[in-house]
Every structure is written in structure tokens, then in C-alpha cells.
Amino acid sequence: MIIRENHGPFSRFRSYEVTEDDEVIERRQEEPDGDRGSARLWLSRICADIFLPFGYPASVTPDYTPFQVWDVLQVQISNYARLFG
User: Fold this and answer.
1) Among 2, 71, 4, CA closest to 33
2) Which residues pair with 25 in a beta bridge?
3) How many Å apart are CA 28 and CA 47, to the nearest integer?
4) Whether the Cβ atoms of residue 46 and residue 38 lie closer than 8 Å to each other
5) Rounded alpha-carbon distances, angstroms, from residue 51 to 15, 16, 55, 63
6) What's the CA gap between 26 and 4, in Å, rounded?
């Protein structure tokens, strides 16, 4: 049996093989389908790994994204207020 795993839209896929003895062997890592090796995909993956929780979006509640947008906006406004205040 072969199992394919991924954690979010920008992550690599991992394939595992389960043998008849129930031993799990990692077979390979694959790039997501589409723009293989493109700079945009690479940059998106790096940014997602840095700024998003592991497994995003499946690992967070539906209110996570609006909260994070508000939080980032609040921090930026606070920084500008300190700079110009």
C-alpha cells in the first residue's frame, strides 16, 4: 500500500510504502503538481513555512485568517504611530 501525505497547499508531498510486514518506508518527496521549481512557488512555500502554522489551512479554525489580518494591521498601525508620534 502507498500512502501520500501533504500538509497544506504549498508543501511537498511525501509518499510512504507499507510492506506486508507492516513496516513503513518513506519512498520519496515530490513537489506539488504544476509550476515545478518555479521561483514564485518556492517563495510562496518559504513564506508559508515562516508565517503560517504547520498544516495551514487544515490545522486552524476558520477565524484564524481574519484574526491574523487584524493582528498584523494593528501591529503596523502601532509601529507607524510610534514612528510619527
Assistant:
1) 4
2) 17
3) 23
4) no
5) 25, 28, 12, 16
6) 10
Tell me the pLDDT tens digit for each residue of 1-28: 777 776 665 566 777 778 778 777 766 6
In this prediction, residues 43-58 reach a mean pLDDT of 82
What is the grid cell recorded at 55?
498544516
C-alpha cell at 27: 519512498
Nearest-5° angle of CA 53, CA 57, CA 61? Answer: 90
Model confidence pLDDT, tens digit, residues 71-84: 999 999 999 999 99
- Extended strands (E) in 6-85: 13-18, 24-30
Q: Give the CA-trace dihedral at 58, 59, 62, 63, to 10 degrees.
A: -150
Burial class (CB in 10 A: 0-12, 13-18, 19+), 37: exposed
Count of CB atoms situated within 10 Å of the CB of 47: 11
